[in-house]
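Schema walk-through. Below, the input block comes first and the output block second. Nothing else is stored per chain. Lengths vary across the set, and this one has 189 residues.
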Amino acid sequence: MSTLQDILAFNEEFVTEKKYERYITTKFPNKKMVILTCMDTRLLELLPQALNLANGDVKIIKNAGAIVVHPLGSIMRSILVAVYELKADEVMVIGHHDCGMSALNAADMMAKMKDRGITEATLSTIENTGVDLKSWLTGFSSVSESVEHSVGMIKKHPLLPAGVPVHGLVIDPKTGKLDLVVDGYETEK
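--- output ---
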């Protein structure tokens, strides 16, 4: 049986047995917060537990590295939707130690793309549209600096209302220990 078939079989049982009932909540976050964090598998259950979060408490946005790459990209749009439409009053960016983005090497990744059938012509077409693939596919060297950068991008965004605290933290993916990088309440003063 494939992974998809396993998931669908489990889901049928989940719905039939009404196991979803314990997760019922509204679309509005109880703690009025939106969190941008990494898609790392180690954080799936650890992060909510380490922050004492239950289903319905916060909005969680995930991407590779918890990075705001573009001020008008989907990450920033999601944060603004959470603030304006879903009643989030605070933003938290949470990176983590031992992040795969810290080791991301553009040349290596592009070689893997070619190994899997992406042609040099395709890469050239993308480069000719004005996208610097090497820069776009490069990670960061310091998770704390990356978190500070994302916090700055969010905090300085012209569409973010004044007075919204934007916090930055780094979590240890082994222990769940949080290190404060930016206290959004302090930057409000």
